[in-house]
Specification:
Length: about 80
């Protein structure tokens, strides 16, 4: 027998599913109903540094800049489209 918490959680998930489905484009609704879909989440990160040779000490470099980059995307993959 399911507990009250499990029933409440199931009810909330069902409500969330209906809200998300309501917001989908008509074309996507047909695809979701008939075939299903997958969601892919990708995150790309980059790191870059720039150095200059130190004139006083040839064994060391001077740090000029540091840059980082983060890019995210979500891919909705419709099956057999």
């Amino acid at each position: 027998m399911e507990s009250g918490f499990e029933l409440e959680l199931f009810s909330e998930l069902k409500c969330l599913k209906e809200k998300l489905y309501y917001r989908l484009d008509q074309y996507l609704k047909v695809q979701v109903k008939n075939k299903g879909f997958t969601i892919l989440k990708n995150t790309y990160t980059g790191f870059d540094t720039e150095f200059e040779e130190d004139q006083c000490n040839t064994n060391k470099n001077k740090l000029l800049s540091v840059k980082t980059s983060v890019q995210r995307r979500v891919i909705l993959n419709l099956v057999n489209v």
